[in-house]
Structure formats: C-alpha cells, structure tokens
Specification:
5-stranded mixed β-sheet, mainly beta
Length: about 375
Amino acid sequence: MNNIQIVGDSTRQQPVQQKPADPRYYLKFSDSFIAWMNEINSSIVFTTYEAGKIVMVGPSLTQAKFAVSERTFGRAMAMAMTNDGFLLSMQHRVWRFQNCLPLGTKTEDNWDRLYLPRECHVTGAVDVHDIAIDKNKRLLAVITLYNCIAELNELGNFNPIWKPKFIDGIVNQDRCHLNGFCMVNDEVKYATITAPSNIANGWRENRKEGGQVIDVTNDEVIISGLAMPHSPRFYKDKLWLLEAGTGWFGWVDTKKGKFNRLAWVPGFARGLRFSGDYALVGLSKPRNKIFEGLPLDDELKKNNKQPEAGIYLINLKTGAIQATMNIDGSVGEIYDVGVLPDTRAPFLAGTTGIEDKKFVFLGPDSTKKIS
C-alpha cells in the first residue's frame, strides 16, 4: 500500500477546557488504484459531508506516485461533472468550478488543471443533494428538505419542477428523504427516496425496506423494498444504484422491478461514478443513529468485516473489486465521487485566503481599436 498523510483543517470548535480534535486524515491506496489512474490518464475527486472537504488525487506529472489537492467546503455533498470542471452542492448553495488551464499546459508547481470557483447559487439551508444540468442547460437539484426536484434560477432560491405524488405540498419538512435523481438523454428520469412518507421525518421509521425508485416522467414506482437507495445513475443503458443500507451495488431491471446485485462493499455505499468498464463506489462508516440498525450490520457480520470509509473500484463485467482507497483519521465518510479525465495533477482553488485573489482567468478580448 502507498500512503499519504494530508493535514487538513477540519477541527471543530470545542470548549476551551478540551483538546481540539485531531484534524489529520490519511489516504491509503492499493497499488492497483494508482496503476488504474495511470492507465486511464485521469484523476479522481471526492467529497466528504461531515468533514466538509473536496479532495482531488491524480497520478502526478512528476516522479511522485500521485498528486493531492484538498479544500474545505462546509457540508460538501454531490457533484455534477461538466466538460471543463464540475458543480458542487452543499446544504445551502451550489458552486461551479472551471478549469482555467489550456490542455497541454501546467503551472510552475506542476499542476495540469487549475479549478477556480466561477459562480455560486445560494439556495438557503434546504439540504441540496444530487445536481445535474439538463438538455435545456437548466441547473437542477434535489431539494431534500422540501421533498422535490427543482430548477436553480433567478426566480427564487429554487423553483420546484417535480415532487412525489404522495407529497401534498412544498414545505420545509424532510418527509421522504428524496436524495437522488439521474438523467436519461439529458432529461430527468429516475429519483430515489428512502420511504414514501407525507409527514415530517416519517421516512426514518421505514429506513430498512421503504426505499423506492420512481420514474419521474409518469410517477410510477419502478422498484420498492430497498434499504436507503442512493446515487441512481444511468450508464450503458442500465439504471445503476447503491443500496446504501445493505452495502450492495447493482442495477435495476426497470421492466421487472428487480434489483440485481453485482458487488458488495463493507460500508454505507454512497457516491457512484463510471469510467469505461469500472465503477467508483464511495463508502462511509456509520456516524449516527440513522446509519444504525440497517441490514448492513448483518452483511458486515456475515462477511466478517468492519465498516470502512473510502472508494472501491469495481469491475462492471465481473463484479470483482479491482482496487481500493481507504480513509482513516478525522474523515470517516464519503458523499460523492468523480473522475477528471485527461488530468494527472488537479489543483482546486478555495474561496478563502489568497487563492481567489491570486488567480485571474482572462476570457476572450472583445475590445476594438478605434481608428
């Protein structure tokens, strides 16, 4: 295993008489994970909700085995990858980051991508989860606190466009824990809920088997009986998802309403992305009562495993675990994962300190000379 220590700044405020928590966390990569990033000439990025981090890891431009960049973004959650960067959802806002380095160039410090914060949409504390851009260039988001999918535009903090049919109004009560959605042909198609409840926090009573996948276009329940489904993704003509409450990754037969299990991971599975014939799956350790008493507990015992935090690389053809990355220390969970193609050393600029002052991204020059 190749190890790297990252000293972050995730210390939380503590009473004066107590010692502050140790902010350090450690990434441990299997050799095969580094080899895979080298093979596809790409980097990975992941978010952590509890510690509030975005972490980028690439195979490096130098003789170092890999390059790491990380920044603090409170309650960092879902990402949507774009052609030149990515979007990031938080509890109360959505950021857009854009790479400002032309292909084939690098900085003096040997970074080949420089992701700058370009725009921010403030939603208010509505608990934004999955985000995406549709074919009409609309920025869409799951607004979990209000049980809806919404467009983020200038008309308001959010503009609801869909809610489950059992929800009787757009109110700030997390009733069904709508947490994810995915696109088909750049249009919203499938959404995941934890349980079909129409009362505040009612989903918590049916976490073990209340989960559903809903076809947004006709409000039809595609499959039910799932344990906290997360991260629905449509890839290679299949609807994939993570059954977080069991630790199973698989695909949904949308005609038969069946969840076909492909691979099991030892943790609360959340965060899913694809590259070629492989899937990146995020794992988290249980951190509170919401994660306790799930079927995952029995799966861990059956497999004689302790819960892990990290990322597993899974072969889509065989279900085999191809490579792993584990996290220890102050970070015990992952919310989302992403792939940065044709990138070996990504650098992420923050919104505090000197970075947002230091880097200037000059757009096209539209000035005209006056004769």
